[in-house]
């Protein structure tokens, strides 16, 4: 099976500019391609991980990736998929975030110089002369055509700033710069980047008279079309300090039955034939598939050791009397107590099991919270329920729903 066939079979490919040429380049090996990562946060998230799996697959077939850190484009901000303008970051913040990205990328893909090119688009975008950019690049862009793209059209009601309007031109210029410097022939990205990618393809053709190609990949979404990778605490991050390995494991362990096979196809390196066999599984078989998904992703993002610990912890929590030392833990200080106790509502907020006291009350009223103070889980029905300081000293476990556990100690 060729690389292109495998990507197709896994459902990874969304849109392409030149399917026949892209298939030939992919299957031949040795092509230079790039994927851009705007440094808008200090950690990559699970949506980025899908892009990293593409890079890894391409590397395994002899291709050379350019890991493009968006130190220049992040100064402007991509309006794609946004209802409002992105927060403006300083140069220092952007460079810090880009450095964190590179560290995390190295856990998934080979970042050695003979296997990957690391580039920062601030190196050329920050040096551009505005008048020259308008004359040499801006002349090739039609405002009417740009406004027809979803990334701009969806923002017209609430307002689109001029700085964001320049983003497409900057990303397109990236492709031109990388073609000139590294003979980069392909740009990949999430399907929300389609308009930016085809604009770059068109710019290289108009300026250099050469054909380059673009491909987008399926966005990580549920069967209902909702974006995956969000929890009550926010994004599912690759940084273990922002989403610890056990929480990461549990996120995938708890995906919907309808989504587990698709996630296995898109995100794991298990043989596609093995995953297709799992499509026949039902009932408890789907629970096993979720466990496999959670283990494989935790192993690939964090390490086999962390995956083993997360699996052991999850297993212990569902075994009577089991120990779960590696589950997420919050340590309280004396100041967190009111007198010699703490209310369950305060505990839910402090552990971030609930984003607010109002949400905490709702969870309790819906009988979604149980607490184990040492003699088994008891469902909490009283919003005024408190836990004594001596119980916290020994350590308690809070369970939200059936599958989310959190240890609290004093």
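Sequence proposed for the structure above (410 residues):
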């Amino acid at each position: 099976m060729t690389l292109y066939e495998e990507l197709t079979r896994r459902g990874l490919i969304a849109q392409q500019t030149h399917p026949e040429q892209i298939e030939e380049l992919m299957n031949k090996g040795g092509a230079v391609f790039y994927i851009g990562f705007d440094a808008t946060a200090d950690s990559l998230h699970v949506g980025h991980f899908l892009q990293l799996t593409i890079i890894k697959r391409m590397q395994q077939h002899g291709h050379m990736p350019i890991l493009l850190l968006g130190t220049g484009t992040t100064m402007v901000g991509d309006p794609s998929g946004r209802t409002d303008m992105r927060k403006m970051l300083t140069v220092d913040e952007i460079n810090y975030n880009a450095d964190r990205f590179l560290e995390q990328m190295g856990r998934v893909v080979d970042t050695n110089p003979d296997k990957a090119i690391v580039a920062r688009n601030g190196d050329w975008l920050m040096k551009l002369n505005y008048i020259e950019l308008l004359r040499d690049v801006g002349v090739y862009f039609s405002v009417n055509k740009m406004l027809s793209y979803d990334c701009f059209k969806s923002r017209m009601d609430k307002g689109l700033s001029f700085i964001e309007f320049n983003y497409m031109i900057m990303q397109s210029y990236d492709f031109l710069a990388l073609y000139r410097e590294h003979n980069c022939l392909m740009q990949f990205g999430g399907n929300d980047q389609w308009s930016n990618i085809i604009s770059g393809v068109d710019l290289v053709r108009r300026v250099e008279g050469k054909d380059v190609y673009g491909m987008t990949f399926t966005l990580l979404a549920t069967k209902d079309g909702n974006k995956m990778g969000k929890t009550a605490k926010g994004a599912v991050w690759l940084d273990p300090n922002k989403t610890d390995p056990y929480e990461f494991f549990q996120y995938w362990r708890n995906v919907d039955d309808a989504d587990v096979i698709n996630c296995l196809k898109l995100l794991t390196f298990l043989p596609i034939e093995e995953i297709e066999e799992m499509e026949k599984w039902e009932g408890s078989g789907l629970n096993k598939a979720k466990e496999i998904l959670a283990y494989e992703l935790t192993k690939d993002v964090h390490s086999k050791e962390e995956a083993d610990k997360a699996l052991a912890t999850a297993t212990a929590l569902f075994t009577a009397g089991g120990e779960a030392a590696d589950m997420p833990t919050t340590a309280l200080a004396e100041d967190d107590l009111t007198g010699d106790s703490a209310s369950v509502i305060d505990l839910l907020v402090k552990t971030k099991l609930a984003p607010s006291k109002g949400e905490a009350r709702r969870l309790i009223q819906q009988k979604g919270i149980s607490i184990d103070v040492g003699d088994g889980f008891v469902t909490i029905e009283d919003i005024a329920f408190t836990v004594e300081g001596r119980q916290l000293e020994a350590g308690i476990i809070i369970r939200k729903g059936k599958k989310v556990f959190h240890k609290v100690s004093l």
